[in-house]
Amino acid sequence: MLLWLLLLILAPGREQSGLAPKAFLLLTPPWSTHFKGQKVTLKCRDSRYPAWGDVSWYYNKNLMREESGEIQIKKSGYYKCKTQVSSFSDPVHVEFLSDWLILQASHPVFEGDKVLLRCLGKEEGIPSEKIYYKDGKKLGSTYSTEAIILNSVSLENSKYHCTVSRKDFWSSWKETSKPLRIQVQELFPPPVLTASPSQPIEGSPVALKCETWLPPQKSDTQLQFCFFREDQALGSGWSSSSELQISAIWSEDSSSYWCQAKTVTHSVIKRSLKSQILVQRVPVSDVNLEIQPSGGQLIEGENLVLICSVAKGTGTITFSWHREGTIRILGRKTQRSLSAELRIPTVKESDAGRYYCAADNIHGPILSKLTMVTLRIPMSRPVLTIRAPKAQAVVGDVVELRCEAWRGSPPILYQFYHEDATLGRSSAPSGGGASFNLSLTAEHSGNYSCEADNGLGAQHSDRVTLNVTVPVSRPVLTLNPAGTQPVVGDVLELRCEAQRGSPPILYWFYHDNATLGKILAPFGGGTSFNLSLTAQPSGNYSCAADNGLGIQCSEVVMLNFTGGLSTTGTPGLLCNAALAFILCHIPSDTLLKNSRRLLDYSPNECQEPSLSKPFSTDTQEPTHSELPALMELQPVYSNVNPGDSDLVYSQVRSTQPTKEHLANSPRMHWEHEGSTVIYSEVKKTHPDDSAGQASSGGWAHEDATESYENVPCASMALDH
Predict the structure, then answer these.
(1) H/E element holding 3?
(2) Residue 494: which H helix or E strand, with range?
(3) Cα gap 73→81, rounded to integer Å
(4) Distances (CA, A) of 159 to 105, 108, 491
(5) Which stretches make up the Ig-like domain (predicted)?
(6) pLDDT tens-digit series, residues 72-119
């Protein structure tokens, strides 16, 4: 009894689904058919085990006056009851028969249960065979009063009866029971499928519930549930849970849903009606394009990431990416999310521009705003060019150092280098190249380079070598040995050297009007010419140096054997001009005596070999070229006539044409009016002057024994 009460209290009823649970009837004895005159006790129960006075009884749908929880009956008919907290119980048909043979079925009987059938005679005598039938077909037989068992009955309308054979002394006959319909109660009603929410929004979770209930008498029956969309089972299939949680439902999931419930023994299985679930789709809105790196500024070669997102929108969304001005779609993705990204690897300069994206979930594409993507181009390796005014860079030239990188985002800062020293810098705000002007000195020969930097990494040019050609300086001619008395047959070394000048240097050696030879100094410096002295070594010696940038002549060095004295000339006369001025140093009487011998000399001009032509070390006398422009001549002092003991020195000052004047004369001959020699005075030696030097008595005319006027001797000598 306590177990029944517990089952009644704990049994799940229809209050879970909003319906009042059914009451149910219990029969004592538990048979639905009895012999007439017998009594049967009916008990009304519900899941809450109500008070006795709360029961309403009905007989053949008519309310009875009985109000207690159980009553005794002895009339055939349909009985049902109801409590204040329950709905009507299923009606129970109890029948009282006056027949000799009745067929009894146990009560209550639920779907899938075993049923006891008992064929009972009013007066049981000698055991006889009892035969059981279902719908006229024999089920079995027995010779005792024991019942037979029917397994797993269902809600069906079959008729059962039994027969027994009787006999007495006179005859035998067969007794047949009244047909019986077994009152099989529903174990659980067909389940009802519910969805929460009933109209879900796409992408939201949905809970499916398969609702049914068991009567309190069968609350210990275990049920299993399965959910279906159309004909496809959902989840893991059959489960003891009557609920199924769908984490996210989509518009394509809109369909018919239903469920099934069954006992674990598979004896009873029922399905729900189909329920249509329509999933609500939310259109996309507020489409946004995000650029990574942030700000949309990239360096060429980096990866560009385009993130397209929507603030709202459900279901499968198709994202697409575009660049303004192009028809081609950069990329497309379809997925169930509110954002998607497109990665463009290793962007190039052509990838710069304005980008946008579109999102569509069947309601039509929605576009984002345009977002600018800018690219900064790293510097390419710059190219350095050196532009000189002439083919050969010379000291004093202004050269342009031009540095230019073909690629690179502005602004660009250029720096210029000589070896490892910085010369200067120049900025190119709008890109392109930049220049730096450099005034050349001799120290500017070497390697030059430049650097370009726009903040993305500096790039260096290749080195460019610049050779600055230095014009030769005036060479110095020295005689070796010096200060000794040369003897015929000696070898005299003529050493000519220019202190400055880029190699190779071509040196020319002259004796009066004759070219002694020429020697090339390929690595610069000086060079020597060895002269074997003959009977007439006296005269004017000079040299010239040229490296293609203009010839330079040394001062004249005079060698005299006449008085047994070898001296060198003082600065002032160059190359071939020396002899002309020496003629002018001599007094008139001495000049007359020695003019024929001196005029026999035909002084040679300084040669002007050019480095633009191949140098030759051939010592043969070259073809005479035009005289170079001479510098202003300085005073020259020399022994003129050692035979005259009274005459010691003469002082000479010369004026001469400029280089421009010389250039206008192809032969470079000086006209009479173009050059004058001025004689100041002639000084005599004093007997008391042990040094033999000229008196320091000044320029007084009373001390002079001879006077001279301006004579154009230089012009005549050169014309000769």
Answers:
(1) helix 2-10
(2) strand 491-497
(3) 14
(4) 12, 17, 164
(5) 21-95, 189-269, 283-374, 382-469, 475-548
(6) 999 999 999 988 888 888 899 999 999 999 999 999 999 889 999 999
